[in-house]
Amino acid sequence: MAQVYRRFAHPSLLQSKAQPRRLLHSELSQPCSWADCSAKAVSEYKDKAYCASHLLKILQKEWQK
């Protein structure tokens, strides 16, 4: 029975916390966590919500480490 649940679980619930997660429709009203950004956030990364361009910058910094 557990396999059936896992098969139908939402993909964002199965992802690692370290991977960016697309915000659900109900969460899209969140502002971007970047200090001077007025855009609406579209993804969450490490418990913070970011717009697409700032998420890209953060991921590039992470990958360069």
Radius of gyration: 14 Å
Low-confidence runs of at least 5 consecutive residues: none
What characterizes the major β-sheet? 3 strands, antiparallel
Q: For the record, give the distance between the C-alpha atoms at the N and C termini, rounded to a whole number.
A: 42 Å
Biggest sheet strand line-up: 1-2-3
Order of helices and strands: HHEEEH
What's the number of extended β-strand segments?
3
Strand content: 5-15%
Main traits of this protein?
single chain; 65 residues; alpha+beta; 3-stranded antiparallel beta sheet; 3 helices; 3 strands
Describe this structure in words.
The chain is α+β, with helices and mostly antiparallel strands. It has one domain. It has three helices and three strands, in the order H-H-E-E-E-H. It has a three-stranded antiparallel beta sheet with strand order 1-2-3. A hairpin with a 2-residue loop joins strand 2 and strand 3. The longest helix has 13 residues. The termini are far apart. The model has no long low-confidence stretch (mean pLDDT 77).
Summarize the structure in short.
The protein is an alpha+beta fold and 65 residues long. The chain has helices at 2-8, 11-14, 52-64; strands spanning 21-22, 43-45, 48-50.
